[in-house]
Structure formats: structure tokens, C-alpha cells
């Protein structure tokens, strides 16, 4: 059963400008994400994904609480590292898209 949906849109140029500060990536991406996500377009997608996930989950999540990594076929796989998120009864589905100067993401919270 779908419990909630979150959506976010971000301008890639805004993220590209922020990436000029090395501390920005360390703040918003986990160490594992930083290994594979390097372009402004992809970082913007992760920003949008994490925002959409926080909206769908309804918890105050830090950037480091949410990890979005590519799965075997390139699909985004979400892991939430927060004690108030019950992985036994909840699952997050995420879709990320990029178009010209924007990145967007939608997150669906499913009750199991």
C-alpha cells in the first residue's frame, strides 16, 4: 500500500556552483556516494532524491541518513540509516530524472 509520495526539483547550475566548495559534497553525499557520483548533474539528482525521500518519509533526515546508490541495472537503491525508519514495515521507491538544466526525483513510501 502506498503511504505517501515526495517530489523535488533542483537546478543543476545551483548544485554545480555549490560543488566549488569541497565541503559541500562531504556534507550532502555519503562516502560511498562520493565514490560513484561526481558530475553536477548526478549530484543534483541525489540532492533531489534525498529531498523527495525526506518528504515521503516524514522524518527529519540528515543528508548522511539517506544513501542512494546505483543498483545492478543502474536503478537507484535507497538505504535509510535512521532509527525511526522501520525497514521491516516500510520500503522506499525512487525515480531520478535529468533534463537540460534540472534534476528531479519522486519517492514513494510503501507500507509492507
- Spatial strand order of the main sheet: 1-5-4
CATH-level-4 superfamily name:
4'-phosphopantetheinyl transferase domain
CATH architecture call: Alpha-Beta Complex
The level of helicity is 25-40%
In CATH, the topology is named Ribosomal Protein L22, Chain A
Question: How would you sum up this structure, described in words?
Answer:
There is one protein chain. This protein has 112 residues and is an alpha+beta fold. The protein has a single domain, classed as Ribosomal Protein L22, Chain A (Alpha-Beta Complex), CATH 3.90.470.20. It has four helices and five strands, in the order βααααββββ. Strands 1-5-4 form a three-stranded antiparallel sheet. Strands 2-3 form a two-stranded antiparallel ribbon. A hairpin with a 5-residue loop joins strand 2 and strand 3. The longest helix is centred in the middle third of the chain and has 18 residues. The chain starts with a strand and ends with a strand. The mean pLDDT is 97.
Kindly list the characteristics that best describe this protein.
4 helices, 112 residues, globular, Ribosomal Protein L22, Chain A, three-stranded antiparallel beta sheet, 36% strand
Brief summary:
This protein is α+β, with helices and mostly antiparallel strands and 112 residues long.
Q: Secondary-structure blueprint of this entry?
A:
Elements: E1 2-11, H1 12-18, H2 22-28, H3 31-36, H4 40-57, E2 66-70, E3 76-80, E4 90-99, E5 102-111
Antiparallel strand pairs: 1-5, 2-3, 4-5
Helix pairs in contact: 1-4
Amino acid at each position: 500500500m502506498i503511504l505517501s509520495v515526495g517530489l523535488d526539483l533542483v537546478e543543476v547550475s545551483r548544485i554545480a556552483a555549490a560543488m566549488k566548495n569541497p565541503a559541500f559534497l562531504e556534507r550532502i553525499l555519503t562516502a560511498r556516494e562520493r565514490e560513484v557520483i561526481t558530475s553536477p548533474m548526478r549530484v543534483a539528482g541525489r540532492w533531489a532524491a534525498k529531498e523527495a525521500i525526506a518528504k515521503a518519509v516524514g522524518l527529519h533526515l540528515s543528508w548522511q541518513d539517506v544513501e542512494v546508490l546505483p543498483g545492478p541495472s543502474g536503478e537507484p537503491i535507497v538505504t535509510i540509516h535512521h532509527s525511526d525508519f522501520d525497514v521491516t514495515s516500510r520500503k522506499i521507491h525512487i525515480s531520478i530524472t535529468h533534463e537540460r538544466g534540472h534534476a528531479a526525483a519522486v519517492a514513494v513510501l510503501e507500507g509492507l
